[in-house]
Amino acid sequence: MPQLEWILLDCDNTLVLSEALAFEACAELANEILEKKGISDRYTGPQLLKEFVGQNFRGMMVSLTKKYNFTLTDEEFDTYVDRELGKVVETLEKKAVPCEGVMDELEKIFAEKKYKMAVVSSSALSRVQASIRKVKMDKFFDPSHVYSAASSLPKPTSKPDPAIYLHACKELGTKPENCVAVEDSKSGATAAKNAKIALIGYVGPYDEDEKEHMRKVLKDDCGAIVVMEHWKDFPEALKTVEEKMTSGKL
Prior knowledge:
PGP-like_dom2, Rossmann fold, 2 domains, 51% helix, six-stranded parallel β-sheet, globular, alpha/beta, 10 helices
């Protein structure tokens, strides 16, 4: 039977409350793109977050080009990605805070040394590093165990593509069946599911009216074994995953 070795953690709104801050900056650039393309629609940060949560900025722009049927050259893509990253990192370095209760749980896991931990994110590596550094979380993660779909792969991608999870497993010298992922978004959870990694869902940062919907999405659509509302529920969630692993029920 597979044994749990690695906990693979999404960053944005799973470890660090960064999505709302990041999407503020994204909306400004998304609206600039739409205006240049002669499209009248405009986004606020919260609207963009609701529609594209879990995607990195490159993935979001691809979605926008499909939704509004326009194109961007590779040079335009790269320019906007660079501008967005600069804006977001600057904001996170000033305002990022950890998700409620997460620091206590990371401290316990780190001290016990039963499991190893890595960060597996869609966001650019510099953004992830800025987030975890600002909230003093970087002490829990070896720098080589922080992975980005936008920066760590030969060809940049974004969740729900499972490539970043498969890459992380390979780099860590482990197999998907020996890992559990923690994800808050459909795109991230789908990436873990498609990589055949056991999943714990997390709905803590969502507004109350969205939590029930996201519980269903993470559980029914993405196959989460447990969906937790607060990080204090993590030890029990992990126990449930481990029991299912050792009993062969995954």
